[in-house]
Design goal:
The complex is a heterodimer of chains A (about 180) and B (about 325). Chain A is mainly α and about 180 residues long. Chain A is built from 9 helices and 2 strands. In chain B, helix 5 links the parallel strand 8 and strand 9. Classes of the chains: A mainly alpha (about 180), B alpha/beta (about 325). At the A-B interface, strand 1, strand 2, helix 4 and helix 7 of A face helix 7, strand 10, helix 8, helix 9 and strand 12 of B.
Amino acid sequence: MTYPARFMLVAAMNPCRCGRASEPGFACKRGANARCAAEYQGRLSGPLIDRIDLHIEVPAVTAADLILPPPAEGSREVAARVARARAMQEERYAAIGLPQVRTNAAAHGPVLEEVTRPDAGGLALLRDAADAMRLSARGYHRVLRVARTLADLDGAEKVGRVHFAEALSYRALVDEVRRAA
Amino acid sequence: MVQRVATVAFEGIEARAVDVQVQVAPGLPAFNVVGLPDKAVSEARERVRAALVASGLALPARRITVNLAPADLPKEGSHYDLPIALGLMAAIGAIPSDALSGFAVLGELGLDGSIAAVAGVLPAAIGANARGEGLICPAACGPEAAWASPEMEIVAAASLIQLANHFRGTQVLARPQPKIREIDGALVDLKDIKGQESAKRALEVAAAGGHNLLMVGPPGAGKSMLAARLPTILPPLTPAELLEVSMIASSRARSRAARSPIAVRSARRIIPPACRRWSAADCARGRAKSRSPITACSSSTSCPSSSRRCSIRCASRSRSVRSPSPGRTIA
């Protein structure tokens, strides 16, 4: 018995047991902040972390932010951009004969490399970053995938240096955790 | 004389044809249901008896045997009440005996003869349409069934008496019109979040490319708030996806569904209670496979709490669940 079940995983976690490790000036009673955080974040296994394309840090909101009026941009505007990017992806994968691939996340190795041809600047950045960040093969493809999405959001055909830079920034946290652990 | 009524049994979102055979034979008065009925189906006897009495009919003082064929397929759910009752009514001549041919029947009976809504009417209607049959279903589910096909014959009745009148031709019921359920509950919006601009950007990227996202931050930073707003920025469901989601939810879902389990320790916390169905029969048949527990998802199709069935199986009495989706699991 099978059910259709395509999903997107959105996970949230605290940086450490008490959740305050990233707070400036906080001294943990359990010892060094970094060690507690590393222990805590190490509970997520490497192979699992590797499968998550985007890693971000969400800092605490300051009171100054809360006093501000609500942002002008709401879900409707963002949804319009998302829909445009998704339409681009569908069109692209349909054009190369893969109508079952609807999003960049579903695209695999060779297809991904074909649709994500970096320009000269992008290539140089990617090469340096792959060395410096010791990207795994999977990690490398994840970066390509995210960069492709970023270019789609910009409406760009070519994936540029700026897209790779942002894609790599979503990857930085993984390496931080790995080093700490 | 055996009266036959077609109905369905659900296997996932597939509706398998089931034949309800009703025999009223001479002998000591009895009312038996055979053919691997579960508890809800066995209790149908009492509901059918009461509903027939409320509709002005009495069970004949003879030996009544109801067989649900194929007899080796487990039958679950309350939707067998109506086919059993209609089969009996046809057997005792309360409705014409040929009235039910060419119809698949499903619905739950109340003690007063009313027909209550059941889950899975849409897959049943699609299955019946594929076999070239019409559908008799509860009035509340009529609009849902009407999605299956515009040509298909659908009778959606609110009570047994309405159905009897329909078949006699004294008060013919109109075909229900397809309808979409209104969204209930307040909608959330990305506007609710102040600050966190970079996190919003990441959420947008995740939505645009279908990427997985991990947020790390102190408690109260707004991670869950951000995650809850993801469905509002995803594009609307395509017709094919809508059908898939509706089949699972039997038209109870209209948008992309989000599950948000907090502090997950076990699979039981992730799976909505209505979806938990540890079937001993499944274990015995050894079809169960275990993988790591699945986790929070926000997807085009996800298991909705309204659906009574889910692909969660007990694997050798452990708490693991099986998810048919590819990889991406979390403990």
